[in-house]
Write a structure and sequence with these properties.
heterodimer, A: 115 residues, mainly alpha, AhpD-like, 0% strand, B: 355 residues, alpha/beta, TIM Barrel, 12 helices, 8 strands, 32% helix, globular
Chain lengths: 115, 355
């Protein structure tokens, strides 16, 4: 059986099939893609700014499909390596900050527990 | 200010890809692993636009030769410093002048290689200037700093109201030099500053300076409206450089860019990205409708890309000596798989976006 011989969970080629999710639930899938297209249109933020935000978020949610897609998208929108890496650092800074800020909770607890 | 060559021409390396026929075979006969890849003709016929036919001739594009002071990695011409063999002669340029005058062809578009390296360049530009024709020079910018021989070139271009269309793939030095050769970015900025000082790209000036953006990798260009404001802001803030318009051109899967795609195992991926981005709205405005490309030996082609693939126009005698510009309307255009490069996304032409 084909699925038994499948050895990988992630196949970059699957990204091209993303649109096929409508096959199992057409209405919701279609609404999602319409919404998605609307979000990434030029608006108060430029398409380029949105691509850089998406790249940072892709690293936060650690989605390999999104990282591939938005690395390409950022290049297409004219962003350079420095800008893209700064966007990733923004994601990393927020993630690490989100851990570190709980250090205050730890400190509060420790101070309650100790003389 | 010197530039370092990133690579050598296919011609100099004497590799099979130097032969247009070999490139054409790859384009036409390649087997794809990732599903069916329709021919360009099939795709166009889906939209009932086959055969593509010519409209009125508006631009005569002359490729003055493959000689160039740069050897860019993506060059569709396989131009370089060693390509001294194929230079357009004065006889052919004289014939072009005669046609431009007789048939009132509004625009002459000079390309290469570095067209300025053709020994007849200045004579021809002067003659076109006196005819009052719109002259485009596809300038690589570094030629403006290529030594004493070219010292007066910026002034010459300004004096003859030449519309300069210059290549600058990115405002980032690393990106530009990776494609065009070390030192190209700095020399290009110097070239732009020289042109700006003469009035090019300045408000209230009729000296037009456009930049050509082409992707520095296996991705497609975004729309000009997205890219142009970034380029304007970055070049102004960092280098005090001004220009008029940004023209976004898709890299064509031929010649040295084809070699890059094959070497990096990205050919299939790139071709599918062109196919996925196929936009039928571009078919009305593809440049082969209103432009005719003339090779160094006077042969006629539907575009500069067809010229490099040695696919001559489908005319009884495709040479400039038999050309009747008023009889071109309705003539079929020669198409092939690389034409997907002109119909992807917003489309691509020597004038930038189409749709």
């Amino acid at each position: 059986m084909p699925f038994m011989s499948e050895k990988k969970y992630f196949d970059p080629e699957d990204l091209k099939k993303f649109g096929n999710i409508t096959e199992f639930q057409e209405e919701m899938g279609k609404k999602f893609f319409d919404y998605y297209a609307e979000v990434f249109k030029e608006g108060a933020l430029t398409q380029r700014e949105k691509a850089l935000i998406a790249l940072a978020v892709a690293h936060t949610v650690q989605c390999p499909y999104c990282i591939d897609a938005y690395s390409t998208e950022c290049l297409q929108k004219g962003a350079d390596e420095e800008e893209m890496m700064e966007a990733v650092h923004v994601a990393a800074a927020i993630r690490s900050g989100a851990s570190l800020v709980f250090g205050v909770q730890m400190m509060n607890h420790v101070k309650k527990m100790t003389m | 200010m010197g530039v370092k060559q990133n690579t050598k021409t296919l011609f100099r390396r004497n590799v099979p890809l130097a032969q247009p026929r070999f490139q054409f075979q790859i384009l036409e006969r390649h087997t794809f692993n990732n599903g069916h890849f329709p021919t360009f003709s099939e795709k166009v016929s889906e939209h009932k636009q086959l055969p593509l036919t010519r409209g009125k001739l508006e631009i005569l594009q002359l490729n003055l030769g493959k000689l160039c002071n740069q050897t860019c990695k993506h060059c569709h011409v396989d131009a370089g410093p060693d390509r001294k063999d194929q230079q357009m002669s004065r006889e052919i340029l004289q014939q072009a002048l005669s046609l431009i005058e007789t048939y009132n062809i509004p625009t002459v578009d000079l390309t290469g290689g570095a067209p300025e390296m053709n020994e007849h360049f200045k004579w021809f530009v002067e003659a076109c200037f006196h005819l009052g024709v719109h002259i485009i020079d596809r300038c690589n910018l570094t030629i403006l700093n290529a030594g004493k021989k070219y010292e007066d070139l910026p002034r010459f271009l300004a004096d003859h109201h030449v519309h300069v269309v210059s290549s600058l793939p990115h405002y980032n030095k690393k990106r530009t030099d990776a494609q065009r050769g070390d030192g190209v970015f700095e020399s290009s900025i110097l070239g732009l500053q020289k042109l700006n000082a003469l009035g090019y790209g300045q408000p209230d000036s009729d000296l037009i300076l456009d930049l050509v953006y082409n992707p520095t990798g296996i991705f497609l260009p975004s729309s000009q409206s997205v890219l142009e404001p970034q380029f304007k802001r970055k070049l102004k803030n960092k280098f005090d450089v001004d220009f008029n318009n940004l023209i976004a051109i898709t890299n064509m899967p031929i010649s040295r860019f084809l070699e890059y795609l094959l070497e990096t195992d990205n050919y299939e991926r790139y071709m599918f990205s062109l196919l996925d981005a196929f936009n039928p709205a571009t078919l009305e405005g593809v440049m082969c409708r209103n432009t005719l490309s003339v090779g160094w030996d006077g042969s006629l082609y539907d575009c500069d890309f067809n010229q490099m693939l040695n696919l001559k126009s489908d005319l009884p005698n495709p040479t400039i000596f038999d050309l009747q510009p008023d009889k071109l309307e309705g003539e079929p255009i020669v198409v092939h798989q690389a034409c997907y490069g002109c119909t992807a996304g917003a489309g691509s032409s020597c004038g930038g976006e189409i749709a």
